[in-house]
UniProtKB/TrEMBL annotation:
Location of the NADH:quinone oxidoreductase/Mrp antiporter transmembrane domain: 123-429
Keywords from the named record: Cell membrane, Membrane, NAD, Quinone, Translocase, Transmembrane, Transmembrane helix, Transport, Ubiquinone
Transmembrane segments: 9-30, 59-86, 106-123, 130-149, 161-183, 204-229, 241-260, 272-292, 329-353, 380-406, 418-443, 458-478
Highest taxon above the source species: Bacteria
Known catalytic reactions: a quinone + NADH + 5 H(+)(in) = a quinol + NAD(+) + 4 H(+)(out)
Assigned EC number: 7.1.1.-
Function according to Swiss-Prot or TrEMBL: NDH-1 shuttles electrons from NADH, via FMN and iron-sulfur (Fe-S) centers, to quinones in the respiratory chain. The immediate electron acceptor for the enzyme in this species is believed to be ubiquinone. Couples the redox reaction to proton translocation (for every two electrons transferred, four hydrogen ions are translocated across the cytoplasmic membrane), and thus conserves the redox energy in a proton gradient.
Gene name in the database record: nuoN
An individual GO BP term: ATP synthesis coupled electron transport
Family (UniProt): Belongs to the complex I subunit 2 family.
Protein name: NADH-quinone oxidoreductase subunit N
UniProt organism field: Candidatus Westeberhardia cardiocondylae
Molecular function terms from GO: NADH dehydrogenase (quinone) (non-electrogenic) activity; NADH dehydrogenase (ubiquinone) activity; quinone binding
Length: 494
């Protein structure tokens, strides 16, 4: 009876979000009121976050062999749900410009993805991973459909992305099918037991792992599975990119959990493959970003290189568990804060100029030259953007700097010195284009300076972005509270 009550408490956030989805569906049928849907979504996500805290005193909690609750799942579930909550609030102003019969579904997709996020952060079984990834993917297909309203040319890219995403899911499913065919189990702990008894991995297991990496590599936009991502970013609305970013983060976390729980991260050949993928992603991502004039396309290549940095953590998790968890946690949080901030500023500026018809072509608002002299039009929003860019560049006194130092420390501790050289080269190149954007903001532009705009309707966005910058600066100067929290994160097997 006690075990049953613990399991129900652990599943309560999923039940709450599921019930919230039903209310949103009823609202779509009866009123189609966009504001009501936003408040219902926020209440549902806040309740889910509230009840997650009750799991802290009960962990570890095993909910069948499919799901388990530990400090890892609690921390990162809180992080991703908070990200979804912020995304729903920040999207409200933009959704006012969307046709009335298409507004409410945006919140529906966020909630469906939130269930997938919870499942992935707590996954203990390959089938659970697959179900969580597909829930996220289906929601993402719906969200990127909003890009057609924003850019009519995006339809072809959306179709290509959906097809490639389905193919990548097939690769992942085929990989876990091969594991089941060879081992007869799909539970992480069972896979670990059976693989630990094998001195050398069979060819079937190596092929299976390669298929899984191919499937997850596309979801994470690692090279060479990245080709559609720059075009998708270029034609996407900033709020849909944020949604994509949050779900990529969740898939990375479940990949980390999978490699850790199954002990696959101990295999040298597999780690070598991941290091090669991460190195190529860092170099190619930074070099391609260097020559971009479109700010969203630049962020897409930046995303490729940043997930390349994070992939390094997948290869060191077994050798330096505590240090790796700190590095991944700090880097992920700094990356999310900076990117959500930058994308929301792009959204604000694009929306204002499109609404007031101050730009003849929406694509021009994504050009770096369009941001020339932004400081002289609105200094505060330019300062926020500058802080976000400095954090991404890894400049001292920002949280991004702490994250970059931690990633380099992983290479030193594991004596992969050539990898540190790649990290330094990649980061040096990235500093060039981030600083270039910052200099553009402060260059006087006599033509555009005549155009002033007010941010009264975006006060919620500005407040949230201000809090983000404070987090970046305060934790960049004094990261000890965050490090202390990250030190407590453990999965059940650790």
């Amino acid at each position: 009876m006690i075990k049953l009550s613990q399991e129900l408490i652990a599943l309560l956030p999923i039940f709450i979000i599921g019930f919230t989805i039903l209310i949103i569906l009823l609202n779509i049928i009866w009123t189609k009121n966009h504001t009501i849907s936003m408040y219902i979504t926020n209440i549902g996500l806040n309740l889910a976050l509230y009840f997650i805290k009750y799991q802290n005193n009960k962990i570890p909690i095993y909910i069948t062999p499919l799901i388990s609750i530990d400090t890892f799942s609690i921390f990162y579930t809180n992080l991703i749900l908070l990200g979804n909550l912020i995304n729903s609030v920040l999207s409200y102003t933009w959704l006012k410009s969307v046709p009335n019969n298409q507004k409410n579904e945006f919140y529906l997709f966020i909630l469906i993805a939130s269930i997938g996020n919870i499942i992935l952060c707590s996954a203990e079984h390959c089938i659970t991973m697959f179900v969580g990834i597909e829930l996220i993917s289906l929601s993402l297909f719906g969200i990127i459909g909003y890009n057609i309203l924003y850019n009519k040319e995006s339809l072809k890219i959306i179709i290509n992305y959906i097809i490639l995403s389905m193919i990548s899911s097939s690769f992942f499913l085929f990989g876990i099918a091969l594991i089941y065919a060879y081992i007869g189990e799909l539970s992480f702990c069972k896979i670990k037991e059976l693989l630990n008894n094998s001195i050398v991995y069979s060819n079937i297991i190596l092929i299976a792992l390669s298929m899984i990496i191919a499937g997850l590599g596309f979801k994470l936009s690692l090279v060479p599975f990245h080709l559609i991502i720059p075009k998708l970013y270029q034609t996407s609305h900033p709020q849909t990119i944020i949604f994509l970013l949050l779900n990529k983060t969740t898939i990375f976390l479940t990949t980390l959990r999978f490699l850790l729980q199954t002990s696959i991260a101990q295999n040298k050949n597999f780690c070598t493959l991941l290091i090669v993928l991460s190195s190529i992603s860092i170099i190619l991502g930074t070099c391609m970003a260097l020559k971009q004039d479109n700010i969203k396309k630049l962020l897409s290549y930046s995303s490729i290189s940043n997930f390349g940095y994070l992939t390094i953590g997948l290869t060191t998790i077994k050798q330096n568990y505590s240090l790796t968890m700190e590095a991944i946690g700090i880097y992920l949080i700094s990356y999310l804060l900076a990117n959500i901030g930058i994308l929301n500023i792009i959204d604000i500026i694009t929306h204002i100029y499109s609404k007031k018809k101050l730009c003849t072509n929406k694509i021009k608002t994504n050009s770096l030259s369009f941001y020339k002299g932004l400081f002289w039009k609105h200094p505060y929003i330019s300062l926020l953007l500058t802080i976000f860019l400095l954090s991404l560049a890894g400049i001292p006194m920002t949280l991004g700097f702490v994250g970059k130092i931690y990633i380099m420390t992983l290479g030193i501790h594991n004596k992969i010195y050539w990898l540190n050289i790649i990290i330094i080269i990649g980061n040096t190149i990235s500093i060039i284009y981030y600083i270039y954007i910052i200099t553009i903001l402060f260059i006087p532009n006599s033509i555009n300076n005549k155009t002033k705009f007010h941010l009264n309707q975006y006060y919620k966005n500005i407040i949230i972005l201000t809090l983000f910058t404070l987090c970046i600066i305060i934790l960049g100067i004094y990261p000890k509270p965050l490090i202390t929290i990250l030190k407590t994160i453990k999965t059940i097997e650790i």
